[in-house]
Amino acid sequence: MTDAQETAAHLRTTTGGGPPDAEVPSDGQPTPIPLLEPREGIPPVVADADALARVVAAFAAGTGPVAVDAERASGYRYGQRAYLVQLRREGAGSALVDPVGCPDLSALGEALSGTEWILHAATQDLPCLREIGMVPTSLFDTELAGRLAGFPRVGLGAMVESVLGYALEKGHSAVDWSTRPLPEPWLRYAALDVELLVDLRDALEKELERQGKLEWARQEFDAIASAPPAPPRKDPWRRTSGMHKVRRRRQMAVVRELWESRDRIAQRRDVSPGKVLGDAAIVEAALALPANVHALSSLPGYGQRMGRRQLDQWMAAVDRAKALPESELPQPGASPSG
Fold this sequence. Notes:
By secondary structure, this protein is α/β, with parallel strands linked by helices. The chain is built from 14 helices and 8 strands.
């Protein structure tokens, strides 16, 4: 048995061996029980000031830590704003808050000041929560806790299954959360994401204490909570997928011009940049250095479905890069990973 298996087995024992009705097959590992419905049902979506005030009052009166999660529309919308915030706390139950209808959640953040927030992969959600006024003073990151405890798989579903014995349905993680109204199956999924976070946190805290790692974990959590917002990335165009193929400075200038043009258009239209022009198409144009619109239109990513106006704007970006003096061309540099 590996260290991770021993850890999981120990946690199943100390937390009651998983769900009471879990089947135990011949290999001794209990079959996870599908978690299909929130305990109190799907909470109504909070999308106006009056409903938000009631949630603020309920969560301020709750006890213990608060489970927090956020859903974004990555791949659909520009940026990483939150389109749904889920919370759960003892005495308050669960809440689903719509940041489109309630764009300022600072009152909720203040009501939870001094309360420990439980997040899974906190660094992913903290930036979008900060944008709407929710900043924790202390937190417990269940993903990081899983890493420190030695679990090989630390996604929320894997952790809930191995530690608590329940199976979460994860089919809606990559949907367009900017959709309105949000379909009921999505809301059920969102509510279930915070359903067991408190239980998971408690079990992982005991395991970290057993391993002598709890103080280390708390220091890591404090560092995340107190970290300032990340500064804007320098030369974000260098992160274009396939950038490693681009060697010449003039070609790098084409990538930069196309990337910056695409970013302006995506921001104006509030769509994911990849829906405006794919990274692969940017790299193709940079490598080919097309002489005119006809040559550009023959490249992958600029085919028949692209209108003349779009082709003209991309060709203009290529031409701007080709016209730059040598002194203004980008310097070679290692492309950032990610």
